[in-house]
Design goal:
The protein is an alpha/beta fold. The chain is built from 37 helices and 49 strands. Helix 5 packs across helix 8, helix 18 packs across helix 19 and helix 24 crosses helix 25.
Length: 1343
């Protein structure tokens, strides 16, 4: 059965969104058969009787329960199931008829009564009904025969296409009817104005009209299908077995208790993990190799969760790598796992430096799951930080490919094999029968043995089949049918396991359709259950069997759970709230998607013709950093496309940016008038075109995490819209003024939209609204929330609010009524079952309603109370059992925080983050009841200057403390009761002098990261390094910023360098910034990253000599440094002990005259020298010896020797920024830049007027070119044809630039123009360049 044959068999549920029209259909049949409504009308008094008679006649004539009734006493399960199947079968027939009848009924309704010529369509529609009824009768037979008969499969596909066409006609007419209803034109004659809102296909009913042509085409196709039905020999057959969507099959694939076998493999690998293997580095590889579905990941999980392994390794991390070996992304996940921090990094170097700091001397276990890359270079890039870990660290790698493993020296591989026969039998028994063997089911054992043989012991296939058979424990015939099914004889070339395909064929029609929809997902795509259900609903797949559609979402969740229980979905490895499909399951979905679903990224692989594109209805594409219009050009022909879905591979990080060509939005959307689903989330889109309002069929619109500022007004005309998602649109400040016409809206997600401070009119009148993520309410006229009655009418207690944000006006004057505001807030109590996040802002009451802090909010995890300036006390938020994060800000009248916050019972049992900000009146924090924050990990207190009394007994779990703008007593007391603090940041602490600080530092024995900002009374951080080494035994990262009176880190300097080697041995990162009284900075030996920034009085920076570990050095804006020369020889005593420096940045070093002996810096990968005005000498002749150097910047050094540059460059240079040197660009001559160079930045040149003057400096290998401050440059358009690889072009501060290189436009992915006034107008949307550049995904034009 094709992916969609089940859809056709479920016309009852696939295409009738308004099942209530059954009544209309019944009335239509009745009045036509009885001659009513030909010329007369019916009075309201007769309406009820007419409806009763009509329904009675209709259900009897269609065999619907005929005259029987359902007795409440029916208790037999068999009787109930028989009756249920009988009803479902009858309902299917009704809804099929209703689906076809809706078209006629809408055209003949009173709203469209002037469409009198549609009487000629009546016979046409009835013929459709009869034809489809005949077709439906044979669908069961077709679904069985299509497995081996391609002609039957094509017949079903043609039928599905026809069903789509009928649905499009129906939806279009339904939209027009709604449009007339909203415009109140139903009772007026057809005027010119009315005709303007009625499609042309509906204003002329001659045989030549477009509508008749469409109907004729559909009728002809139906007739062809009927004739072909007979030719194919399809006959009427009953259902062989029933389906029960409520069946629940437990999945336990990730639990050790459900893993059969693998004990020997596990024990062997555990020994490898715990043992010390001979290895020339600190870590070794433990590979797990095998085919897909054999259980590599399961075995890795067993190892990862093994207690011995957990106890042995200090740090652990798990990363799913998959197809794309993204070193940055992998490193980021590892860093987050080992540090617990979600920190952003500008580049890979900074990330890996930070990662290395956390891995330093720690025994580390890493699992790299599902590696596909065979590149040794990728591996080298990734593992740099791992060399710092302790000996005995291990890396488990699971992969289907052996090439990379062998390159790493693992030559004796033992691929993981399929399960032995006995284990495979046990696995089938476990999942099918719930026992470990077939001893009590001997009659089934032969069939199980046959299944095990055909599955070849593959665990994934065995589990899927076991679950398929679970409800057939005692049905021997069913097991026999599974074993003898013809599906086993199909060949898939080893790509799709036949057993998985068999599991698919056992799904009901609707589940097949829902699963086929998931073929749009790429491998390793992480999806949310709720979001997928909303997509299914938007596509029209979810239709409950009742006449009400209020539980579509519930039905979708049941379908999801059924697919989950059959192993079609799995929990994502690192995030149990998300889901993923196994690679083989994904392959299965792709194989059955046929000609309806397509992944844009697979077009070339599938070799799809342009003609085939016209048939596709659903399309997805994977987000890339730059998505071009060219990628979508083929889909201009896909006029029938219903779905345009942006997806991604793996986790989308907050720092990632994705750019989409403006032309895609402006042009392509106009070509796709039948779109139901449009998802463009996570793209840097600043404007939504007005054309989106013409997508009249749109039911799902997702623009979350984009840069939009507003939605077009005509979005409010999308009458069919069910789901609107604009969450995390941080620039969004305006929605359409009115949502009154969005009668079908069920889900509105406006989470994390800080600039959106008012709500559309009519939101409270949307009766079908099921979920709201946020409500912004202001007590002002625009929002009509002026009294408790208005608040009560909003009926929030009945809505599925997951997030509630209540915002009042920030104006504090006599118009505020504190009593009224409390009454309003009291009436806004949301449903306790769904609320996860609560924010209350600028509330004017003196205290809070009792529901704020009510422990019945079991799911509430995040609470923010801000700007409530009149409140004198806090609500009992400590009673919330699931509260994890609490922010209290701007409560100016609160003086004491005490037991009232805790309430009764166990206080704050789950709280992990507690933040107090801007509490100017707060004086006392007193909670004397033992441990009250048992799980608290992060505490922040900011701008609470009067807080002088902190009475807390213990904060045992506290790891991170941030105290800003407070008295020194707060710092002292918090660190005294927090023995586990590893991260401390203090800023603007009054009274924190040397004496007080040394009292604080004694409690920092566990501290790893220490930041001190704007503490101007501190002169020395410690008495001596020897003293600091005894206290700060774990300090790894020290940052000091803007401490104006700091003289040096230590008050007493050790006399001999030999003493320093044992001091501060744990310190790895030292950054000192804007300490203007500091004269000397002495770098401890073990520091790996040193940064000294804008210390205007510093004269000396002492770097370690000898066996130091410094790898990253920044010296920025230290203008009084006395040294006049810097180079490799400064950091080494002999050539046998080379410096380890990898990164060097020197800027604004006024006295620096020369750089020397770069040859010593053999590990250097990045070198930046800028704004050193006195520098005269640079050893560019040594650059060719720096074989690892990839990034080089030399700019704003106007005194540099006029011989530079002279053509000497690092052989692997990739990024070069150069300019404002003594030698002007016009005199540079040929430079012999290496072919590895891909990014070039030329800056600060005032003698060049045309690009022809320096085109010889632009190698053909460039992919990125940036021109900065070329003041006289006028033309950049000629002689650039050789830059065929250029993708990124930027101009900054070129005030005379008049033109751009049109020859380069087609290949560009980004274009940036800033400070080029002559180009601003030409590159605007009305300018002459716009037609040439609108296809570029990222266009940034600045004044």
């Amino acid at each position: 059965m094709s992916a969609f044959s089940g859809v056709v068999s479920a016309f009852s549920g696939g295409f009738v969104e308004k099942t209530k029209l059954l009544i209309q259909l019944a009335i239509h049949d009745y009045v036509v058969s009885h001659g009513i409504l030909r010329t007369e009308t019916i009075s309201p008094s007769k309406t009820k009787l007419l409806i009763q008679l009509a329904i009675h006649d209709y259900v009897v004539s269609h065999g619907i329960l005929r005259t029987e009734t359902i007795s409440p006493s029916v208790s037999s399960m068999s009787e109930k199931s028989k009756l249920q199947r009988r009803i479902q079968k009858s309902m299917a027939e009704i809804l099929l008829s209703a689906f076809l009848g809706v078209l006629f009924e809408k055209l003949a309704s009173t709203t469209l009564k002037n469409f009198v010529l549609y009487k000629g369509i009546d016979a046409e529609i009835k013929r459709w009904q009869r034809s489809l009824n005949q077709i439906q009768d044979v669908l069961t037979d077709a679904s069985q025969k299509e497995i081996t008969n391609q002609s039957v499969k094509r017949w079903l596909n043609d039928l599905q296409h026809l069903a789509y066409d009928i649905d499009d006609v129906l939806d279009d007419l339904a939209y027009q009817a709604m449009d007339r209803e909203f415009n109140h034109e139903s009772s007026k004659p057809i005027t010119r104005k009315v005709r303007n809102i009625i499609p042309s296909c509906c204003t002329n009913f001659s045989r030549n009209s477009k509508l008749h042509e469409k109907l004729d085409i559909i009728s002809a196709k139906l007739q062809d299908l009927l004739e072909e039905k007979a030719t194919l020999g399809l006959s009427v057959k009953g259902e062989s077995r029933s389906k029960n969507i409520n069946r629940r099959l437990q999945t336990s694939m990730v639990h050790a208790s459900s893993v059969v076998g693998r004990q020997a493999e596990k024990e062997a690998l555990v020994q490898r993990l715990l043992g010390d293997e001979p290895c020339d580095q600190n870590f070794s590889i433990v590979p797990i190799v095998g085919m897909g579905g054999v259980g590599k990941t399961t075995l890795a999980r067993l190892l990862y969760d093994e207690k011995q392994v957990k106890d042995h390794f200090e740090l652990k991390a798990w990363v799913c790598v998959s197809d794309e070996f993204d070193s940055f992304g992998i490193s980021k996940v590892i860093f987050q796992s080992v540090s617990g921090l979600n920190k952003e990094f500008a580049d890979l170097n900074l990330l890996q430096v930070a990662l290395r700091d956390h891995l330093r001397e720690k025994r580390f276990l890493l699992v790299l799951d599902d590696i596909w890359s065979e590149s040794y270079e990728d591996w080298e890039t990734l593992v740099g930080p791992f060399y710092a870990c302790a000996t005995g660290s291990k890396i488990i790698m699971t992969t289907r490919k052996e090439q990379l493993i062998k390159k790493l020296g693992c030559n004796h591989l033992n691929p993981l094999q399929s399960l032995p026969h006995d284990d495979a039998m046990s696995l089938v028994a476990l999942h099918a029968l719930g026992v470990n063997n077939f001893d009590l089911h001997l009659s089934l054992k032969p069939y199980a043995e046959g299944i095990v043989k055909k599955c070849d012991g593959l665990p994934l296939a065995l589990i899927a089949l076991g679950r398929l058979l679970r409800t057939k424990k005692d049905e021997e015939e069913y097991w026999k049918n599974v074993l003898s099914s013809e599906i086993w004889r199909l060949q898939d070339g080893g790509v799709i396991v036949p057993a998985l395909r068999l599991s698919y064929h056992d799904l009901s029609g609707i589940l097949k359709q829902l699963f086929a929809y998931c073929s749009l997902f790429p491998k390793d795509f992480l999806f949310d259950k709720e979001e997928l259900v909303l997509l299914w609903m938007a596509e029209g797949f979810l239709h409950p069997s009742t006449l009400s559609d209020s539980n579509k979402e519930q039905l979708g969740h049941e379908y999801f759970d059924e697919l989950m229980s059959r192993s079609f979905f799995q929990h994502a490895p690192n995030n149990k709230s998300l889901f993923v499909m196994h690679d083989l399951i994904n392959d299965l979905a792709t194989s059955i998607a046929d000609e309806f679903y397509v992944k844009l990224d697979n077009l070339e692989e599938k070799n799809i013709s342009k003609e085939m594109l016209e048939k596709y209805r659903h399309m997805s594409f994977v987000r890339e950093e730059y998505v071009t219009y060219k990628k979508f050009e083929p889909f201009k022909r896909a006029k029938s496309l219903r779905t345009l879905l942006a997806t991604s591979v793996g986790v989308v990080e907050s720092w990632q940016s994705f750019y989409l060509s403006n032309k895609v939005l402006a042009d392509l959307l106009l070509e796709l008038p039948l779109l139901r689903v449009l998802c463009l989330s996570n793209f840097v889109i600043s404007e939504v075109p007005e054309s989106i309002g013409t997508l009249r069929h749109l039911t799902y619109l997702n623009l979350s995490r984009t840069a939009i500022t507003h939605l077009p007004k005509n979005v409010s005309n999308l009458y069919k819209l069910q789901t609107l998602i604009v969450s995390s649109c941080h620039c969004l400040d305006m929605l359409p003024k009115s949502f009154l016409k969005l009668k079908n809206l069920r889900h509105l997600d406006i989470r994390d939209t800080p600039l959106l401070n008012w709500m559309p009119i009519g939101l409270g009148e949307l009766k079908g609204l099921q979920t709201l993520s946020k409500i912004v309410l202001g007590v002002w006229t625009k929002c009509k929330m002026q009294n408790a009655t208005h608040a009560r009418e909003a009926n929030f207690s009945q809505k599925r609010l997951s997030e509630l944000e209540v915002v009042w006006s920030c104006v504090v004057d006599g118009s505020r009524n504190k009593v009224l505001e409390k009454e309003v807030l009291n009436e806004l109590k949301p449903c306790t079952d769904y609320l996860k996040q609560l924010k209350i802002r600028s509330y004017g009451g003196l205290d809070f309603p009792i529901w704020v802090g009510d422990p019945s909010f079991l799911r509430l995890k995040h609470v923010e109370i801000c700007g409530c300036k009149k409140c004198t006390s806090l609500p009992p938020l400590g009673q919330l059992p699931s509260l994890k994060k609490l922010l209290i800000k701007g409560l100016e009248m609160v003086k004491v925080v005490g037991m009232e916050l805790l309430g009764t019972g166990l206080a704050c049992p789950s709280l992990k983050t507690l933040i107090f900000v801007d509490m100017p009146g707060w004086e006392k924090w007193s909670i004397n009841s033992g441990v009250v924050f048992p799980c608290l990990q992060k505490l922040k207190i900011e701008d609470c200057p009067k807080l002088v009394e902190v009475a807390l007994e213990s904060l045992p779990s506290l790891a991170s403390v941030e105290i800003i703008g407070c008295n020194n007593f707060v710092v002292r007391r918090v660190v005294e009761v927090s023995p586990s603090v590893t991260k401390l940041k203090i800023e603007c602490i009054s009274g924190l002098n040397d004496v007080v600080w040394r009292g604080v530092i004694e409690y920092l024995v566990a501290i790893e990261e220490l930041s001190i900002f704007h503490c101007n009374e501190i002169r020395y951080l410690w008495e001596s390094e020897e003293f600091a080494s005894k206290v700060l035994v774990k300090l790894r990262n020290l940052e000091v910023f803007a401490c104006d009176n700091l003289v040096s880190l230590g008050e007493r300097v050790e006399e001999a360098d030999s003493c320093r080697r044992s001091l501060l041995t744990s310190l790895r990162v030292l950054n000192v910034s804007q300490c203007n009284n500091m004269e000397c900075c002495r770098c401890p030996d073990n520091v790996e990253t040193l940064g000294v920034f804008s210390c205007t009085s510093i004269t000396s920076i002492s770097l370690p000599i000898g066996a130091h570990k410094l790898k990253s050095l920044d010296i920025i804006n230290c203008k009084k440094l006395l040294e006049r020369e810097w180079g490799g020889q400064n950091m080494t005593a002999n050539r046998n002990n080379m410096p380890m420096l990898e990164y060097v940045s020197i800027e604004c070093w006024s006295n620096l005259k020369s750089i020397t002996e770069l040859n010593y810096l053999v590990h250097l990968t990045e070198l930046r020298i800028s704004r050193c005005e006195s520098m005269e000498s640079f050893p560019d002749n040594e650059l060719p010896n720096l074989t690892l150097l990839k990034d080089l910047e030399i700019t704003n050094c106007p005194s540099m020797d006029a011989s530079f540059p002279r053509g000497f460059w690092p052989p692997k240079l990739r990024h070069l920024k150069v300019g404002k040197l003594k030698k002007p660009v016009l005199e540079w001559g040929p430079q012999n830049l290496p072919t590895s160079l891909v990014e070039l930045y030329l800056c600060c040149e005032d003698g060049v007027g045309s690009c022809n003057q320096f085109r010889h400096l632009l190698p053909s290998s460039l992919t990125s070119l940036e021109i900065i401050e070329f003041e006289k440059l006028e033309s950049f358009s000629m002689g650039l044809q050789h830059l065929t690889l250029l993708q990124h072009l930027s101009f900054y501060d070129c005030p005379n630039l008049m033109d751009l290189p049109e020859v380069l436009f087609p290949s560009l992915l980004s274009l940036t123009i800033s400070g080029c006034p002559n180009l601003n107008e030409r590159c605007s949307k009305s300018g002459s360049y716009w037609p040439l550049i609108s296809h570029i995904p990222c266009i940034s034009i600045y004044p």
